[in-house]
Amino acid sequence: MLTMSYSPLFLSLKIAAIATLLVFVAGVILARVISRNLFPGKSILESVFLLPLVLPPTVVGFGLLYLFGKNGILGKWLMDWFGVQVVFSWIGAVIAAVVVSFPLMYQSASAAFQNYDSNVENAALTMGASRLKVFFTISFPLAWPGLLAGTVLSFARALGEFGATLMIAGYIPGQTDTIPLAIYFAVEAGRMEQAKMWVLIIVALGFSSTLWLNWWTRRNVLLFNRKS
Amino acid sequence: MLNLDFQKRLNHFLLDITASFQNEIIILFGPSGSGKTTTLNCIAGLSHPDEGQIELNGEKLFDGKSKVPVQKRRIGYLFQNYALFPHMTVQKNIQYGSNDDELVRQLTEVVGIQHLMTSYPHQISGGEKQRVALVRALATKPRALLLDEPFSSLDRQTREQCHQELLRLHSRWQIPIILVTHDEEEARKLGDRILPMDQGKLGSPDEFW
Hints:
The complex is a heterodimer. Chain A is mainly α. Chain A has helices at 7-35, 42-54, 57-68, 73-82, 90-113, 119-126, 131-160, 163-169, 179-188, 192-225. Chain A has a single domain, classed as MetI-like fold (Orthogonal Bundle). Chain A contains 10 helices and no strands. Chain A starts with 6 loop residues before the first helix and ends with a helix. Chain B is of the alpha/beta class. Chain B has a single domain, classed as P-loop containing nucleotide triphosphate hydrolases (Rossmann fold, 3-Layer(aba) Sandwich), CATH 3.40.50. Chain B has helices at 36-44, 70-73, 90-95, 101-111, 126-138, 156-172, 184-190, 205-208, and strands at residues 2-9, 14-21, 25-29, 51-56, 59-62, 75-78, 144-148, 177-181, 193-198, 201-202. In chain B, strand 7, helix 6 and strand 8 (177-181) form a beta-alpha-beta unit. The A-B interface holds A 116-117, 119-120, 122-130, 137-138, 141-142, 224-228 and B 44-46, 70-77, 79, 81, 83-87, 96-98, 122-125, 136-137, 140.
């Protein structure tokens, strides 16, 4: 019987859930503000948002260390003002997960907010609705399928984050040992059975979330878009 | 009464509008890209002129410095593709900007859409969508009504019916109605006044006839 701590599972779920929540809020707000507006520098800004998608995770990790390290601009500020240490802590893992999963959320949300006729929002405005009411009653429900897809993909990406997490949070059992890190260090230590177990768990989590998303999308979005 | 006197620089020309409308049906008639929709958007408050003024029943909606936001203008707008909310039933669509149940009941009766109230937009025909959008716009008790090629995607028979309904509604709810079209027959039939429009300028009604 294999004896192992399940802390990587709960830690991974905790980190991915917090990161997804942050990414959801930031992605939805930024995508809504930016996607339908044209302004100078828009392409540059969007390229910066998508950069973590194309950079090696080690580069992202290096950048985060540079910013959040003990002598980094943000790291020093967080330590001096709030006593929060980012490197070698689960907070660092959350930040790494946020940075690598944000592009997926932004891209999905941006496409979702451009996927419906903008005149439905204009119609609501001419009917006297405030911009907040228009957002929550029109924009958000119409973009919801795309937002949900972005959320699930971001969650799956956050769950699987390895390179940047290792660089900023390191591998501290019980504190920063997420499932991908646990797999790597189990293999390195020759504990293949344990590594296999974690691989199965993370494959099951990733597969079930994307399977559910596909099922939900087929059931709801197709119904929604069907012409009479 | 709606008074317009404004300018707005567009990509290829200057939109320069000076006109005054009573409670009549005005037709803006002109080719695509002549600035008709932008004119409607400026009146509704969805976009703004560079300078000039827009006045409705004595209230300044725009005067270069201050502008009344779109939500406060109470100007109904019927978009070319109707812009019905696809995730709401016809009833929810109509009640979105109105809580006057009696007015909603009257309007739905006049255009005969009572039986559609629980349907979703994707379940009804083009003509029905057009009627729903018209009722939805009027249910907010607008002080003026803007229609951007509202009948262009309808078949001939449905278009005829919708023309009659618009005339009937206008005889009951006397407000300025500005209708954009490039259908000459429609313009002649519905318009109390027809203003040809080209390259951002309004011509005189004589030019049309």
